[in-house]
Amino acid sequence: MLGSQVKTPPKDHARQSTSNNAKARYFMAWRWHFYAGLFVVPFMIMLSLTGLVMLFDDEIELARYHSIIEVQPSDTQISSEQQLKAVQAEYPNANITQFVMSHAPEHANRISIAKEDGTSVLVTINQYTGEVLGEIDRSESWYQLANEIHGTLLIGDWATVLLKSRPV
To answer: Where does the pLDDT of residue 151 fall: very low under 50, low under 70, confident under 90, or very high at 90 and above?
Structure first.
C-alpha cells in the first residue's frame, strides 16, 4: 500500500471548505447585525420621537396655551422692570428665576418663577399692558415628559450612564 493506493481529495474541496466557512461567517455576522438592530430600533424610535417633541416645544406650547400666550401688539411696551414688578405683585412669595422675551410681537413674555412649595412655573405677561395673563406649569408640559423619557430611556440611571459616557 503505497501512496498510489491512497486517494487524495481534489483541490476544489479546499476551495469549497473555505467558501463554506466564509458564507457561514457572513450569515452569522448578518444574524447578529439583525438582532442588534431589533434591540436598538425601539430605543432609536423613542429617542427620535421624544427629540421631536422637545424640538417643537414652542409650537406645542402655543397650541396648548394660546389663550395666555397670544397678545395684541401695540406701539409701546412697558419696561422689563415693570413687567417683573407686576409678576412679583401677583406672586409675592415667589422668586423670579428667569425672564424670557418673546420672539414675536404677538406672543407674551414669559417669566419663570419658583413658588414657595418648590414648583417652577412660567408666568406669561403682556409686554404692552403689564397684565399677568396666566401660568404654565412646566412639570406638566410635554417637554418635561419627553425630556425625562429622552434622558433615561425609561430604564433609569443606567441610561444616564450609557448616554453620558463617551469612549476615550
So the answer is: confident
122, three cell numbers: 412660567
- Tell me which long-range contacts 153-157 makes (C-beta under 8 A, separation of at least 24): 153/43, 153/46, 153/47, 154/46
- Beginning with the edge strand found earlier in the chain, give each strand of the sheet holding 95-100 in spatial order: 95-100, 109-114, 120-125, 132-137
pLDDT digits (tens, 9 = 90+) for 88-138: 999 999 999 999 999 999 999 999 999 999 889 999 999 999 999 999 998
Q: Which three cell numbers stand for residue 119?
A: 414648583
Average pLDDT over residues 57-75: 94
Left if phi > 0, otherwise alpha if psi is -120 to 50, otherwise beta: which for 122?
beta
C-alpha cell at 115: 413658588
Q: Tell me if 100 sits within 8 A of 73, measured CB to CB.
A: no
Calculate the average pLDDT of the chain: 87
Would you say 84 and 100 are in contact if contact means Cβ atoms under 8 Å apart? no
Query: Which amino acid is present at 159?
Result: A
What spatial distance separates the first Cα and last Cα of the chain, rounded to whole Å? 64
